[in-house]
């Protein structure tokens, strides 16, 4: 492809002129694609295969990688911390996705009908989406502090509610991290839901009203079914987001990442620590393969659900 | 827009008044709760260390001292410039290459086109986290660690952007392109001068998404940079906050400095950003 490019620019003009229009266009196409093909091959596909290969080695940055078969996978599946982390990741997903989707749908549904100060209210919900998780993680961390400092505990104490440990508790920490993660993503989901709601043709609603359906029946029988593609997209998008959660956890537990006692550690944080704190690159690669497999299953489920509809 | 407003009118005439007022009030309260963390962040960034324990939202004696202190040593300025340079460069690269590839896949007939399309699309399935270890290895071998290029190279093109642009270029009528061909323009000029101006909404959606994604990116910049001069703003904020330990007024100031630029951009371009997110989300 690179040579085709060279011919088109430097080669004899006559040769270029003798080519048919169709051939010229094919050469143009490959010239346009030359750099991108190198990029995708070198920076997407090759590293993918390399990650699979590394997961079968004991590479530790110091010595050259040695093939050790499935030893990394055996070690991982025998490691109770891995299962704890797996469980945490799943909790982020299974609580975060439905909760954020229900909240954002309810808000989008009502916001779509609001005319008074519509832009302003929409902006309030959308603003957190534009923030940096690394910065907001610290703001929320401050919110969760005990009484003289923390806003939430200060608020609770004015109502006489006892102090909550939040990030310091094995039971509450994961939920305390999940809340800012949901908070940050709501704006995006609301906007997408509103776009989906507006794409439903008005005639459906008019027909339903003529048939005497009430608001609730219209919501159940028209809005929700017609919104299915949007919903499926958001389910997958936010599932992938929660399965890959990292920024919030890293910043909200930075003195003991993933703590207390690994109770908040998600898979990506474990990968980060295995690779870049203990330099067990091979072992970390095996963990990324697990993440890849989980994400692949989620994506394939999306394709399956969308196909079923047709 | 017209469709939405007729829908709203229809809703207006039917809904019971008190219900609508309650819904509106709840929505407004919910929205104010959403920005509470931001309000407290700004408020605390204007307090002295002695006032941090005073949880009133409006500081008793607002001061910009924290900003002077945090910005004083120039680190935040450096990180801000790093982030801006990286996000702008990666965005320009995506606008150029994703559009070029999307256009080629949409408007050229050649053997292998479908294969190339599927190959690029399939990279959507590969999570960044899986690639960081090979990227790190590659960067250390090629000397890309601790460099702008090292931070930027993984995102210079994306399958998402290519797919988005391809869909929009498919809507560009061939007649325009043929007419330009008859006029003797070369294919590159046709793409750049004729086709690109016809998909400006898609370009701006792609640009907004790419910029935001890179501006807030944390995972890869954290891995590839170890020297503080090369930190991006999120990585810088994270390391600064860990250092500041319990000086919450300074931490809030750092977080505010990281948040203010995007808020200003949003206030200026709100309509385009919301529309861009809608467009990218629905078509992507």
Characterization of this structure:
The complex is a heterodimer of chains A (310) and B (284). Chain A has 15 helices and no strands. With 310 residues, chain A is mostly helical. The radius of gyration of chain A is 26 Å and the shape is flat. The mean pLDDT of chain A is 89. The longest helix of chain A is centred in the first third of the chain and has 34 residues, at 21-54. Chain B has 2 domains: 15-63, no CATH class; 68-283, MetI-like fold (Orthogonal Bundle), CATH 1.10.3720. Chain B contains 14 helices and no strands. Chain B has helices spanning 2-14, 17-45, 65-72, 75-107, 113-122, 128-142, 148-152, 159-169, 174-182, 187-195, 200-215, 219-224, 233-244, 248-283. Chain B is globular, with a radius of gyration of 24 Å. In chain B, 41% of the residues are buried. At the A-B interface, helix 3, helix 5, helix 6, helix 7 and helix 9 of A face helix 1, helix 2, helix 4, helix 5 and helix 6 of B.
Write the layout of secondary structure elements.
The complex is a heterodimer of chains A (310) and B (284).
Chain A: H1 2-10, H2 13-18, H3 21-54, H4 71-77, H5 80-111, H6 118-126, H7 133-143, H8 151-158, H9 173-198, H10 202-210, H11 215-226, H12 228-243, H13 247-252, H14 267-276, H15 281-309
Helix pairs in contact in A: 1-3, 3-15, 4-15, 5-9, 5-12, 7-9, 9-12, 12-15, 14-15
Chain B: H1 2-14, H2 17-45, H3 65-72, H4 75-107, H5 113-122, H6 128-142, H7 148-152, H8 159-169, H9 174-182, H10 187-195, H11 200-215, H12 219-224, H13 233-244, H14 248-283
Helix pairs in contact in B: 2-14, 3-14, 4-8, 4-11, 4-13, 8-11, 9-10, 11-14, 13-14
Please give a handful of descriptors for the protein shown.
heterodimer; A: 310 residues; mainly alpha; MetI-like fold; 2 domains; 15 helices; 0% strand; flat; B: 284 residues; 14 helices; globular
């Amino acid at each position: 492809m690179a040579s085709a490019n060279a011919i088109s620019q430097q080669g004899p003009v006559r040769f270029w002129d003798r080519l048919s229009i169709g051939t010229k266009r094919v050469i143009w196409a490959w010239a346009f694609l030359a750099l991108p093909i190198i990029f995708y091959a070198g920076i997407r596909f090759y590293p993918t295969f390399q990650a699979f290969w590394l997961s079968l080695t004991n590479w530790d940055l110091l010595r050259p990688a040695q093939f050790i078969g499935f030893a990394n996978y055996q070690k991982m599946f025998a490691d109770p911390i891995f299962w704890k982390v797996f469980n945490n990741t799943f909790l982020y997903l299974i609580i975060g996705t439905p909760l954020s989707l229900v909240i954002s749908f309810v808000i989008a549904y009502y916001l779509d009908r609001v005319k008074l100060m519509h832009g302003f209210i929409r902006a309030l919900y959308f603003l957190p989406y534009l923030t940096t998780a690394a910065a907001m993680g610290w703001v929320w961390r401050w919110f969760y502090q005990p009484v003289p400092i923390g806003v939430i505990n200060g608020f609770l104490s004015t109502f006489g509610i006892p102090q909550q440990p939040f990030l310091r508790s094995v039971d509450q920490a994961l939920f305390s991290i999940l809340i800012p993660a949901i908070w940050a993503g709501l704006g995006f989901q609301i906007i997408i839901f509103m776009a989906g709601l507006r794409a439903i043709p008005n005639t459906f609603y008019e027909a339903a009203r003529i048939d005497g359906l009430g608001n609730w029946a219209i919501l159940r029988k028209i809005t929700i079914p017609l919104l299915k593609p949007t919903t499926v997209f958001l389910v997958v998008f936010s599932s992938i987001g929660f399965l890959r959660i990292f920024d919030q956890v890293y910043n909200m537990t930075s003195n003991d990442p993933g703590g207390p006692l690994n109770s908040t550690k998600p898979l990506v944080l474990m990968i980060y620590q295995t690779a870049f704190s203990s330099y067990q690159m091979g072992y970390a690669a095996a963990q990324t393969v697990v993440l890849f497999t989980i994400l692949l299953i989620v994506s394939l489920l999306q394709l399956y659900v969308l196909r079923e509809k047709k | 827009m017209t469709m939405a407003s007729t829908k709203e009118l229809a809703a207006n005439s039917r809904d019971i008044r008190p219900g609508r007022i309650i819904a509106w009030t709840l929505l407004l309260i919910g929205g104010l709760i959403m920005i509470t963390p931001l309000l407290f962040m700004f408020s605390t960034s204007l307090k002295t260390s002695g006032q941090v324990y005073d949880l009133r939202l409006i500081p008793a004696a607002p001061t910009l001292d924290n900003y002077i202190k945090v910005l004083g040593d120039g680190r935040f300025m450096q990180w801000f410039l790093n982030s801006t340079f990286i996000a702008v460069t990666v965005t320009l690269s995506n606008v150029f290459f994703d559009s070029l590839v999307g256009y080629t896949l949409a408007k050229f007939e050649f053997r292998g086109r479908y294969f190339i399309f599927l190959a690029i699309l399939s990279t959507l399935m590969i999570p960044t986290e899986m690639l960081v270890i090979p990227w790190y290895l590659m960067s250390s071998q090629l000397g890309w660690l601790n460099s702008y290029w090292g931070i930027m190279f993984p995102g210079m093109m994306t399958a998402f952007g290519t797919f988005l642009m391809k869909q929009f270029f498919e809507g560009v009528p061939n007649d325009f392109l043929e007419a330009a061909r008859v006029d003797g323009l070369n294919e590159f000029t046709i793409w750049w001068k004729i086709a690109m101006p016809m998909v400006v909404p898609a370009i701006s959606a792609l640009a907004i998404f790419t910029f935001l994604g890179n501006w807030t990116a944390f995972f890869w910049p954290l891995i590839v940079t170890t020297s503080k001069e090369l930190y991006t703003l999120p990585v810088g904020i994270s390391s600064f906050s860990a250092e500041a330990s319990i000086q919450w007024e300074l931490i809030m100031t750092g977080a505010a400095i990281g948040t203010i630029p995007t808020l200003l951009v949003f206030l200026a371009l709100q309509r385009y950003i919301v529309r861009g997110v809608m467009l990218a989300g629905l078509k992507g």
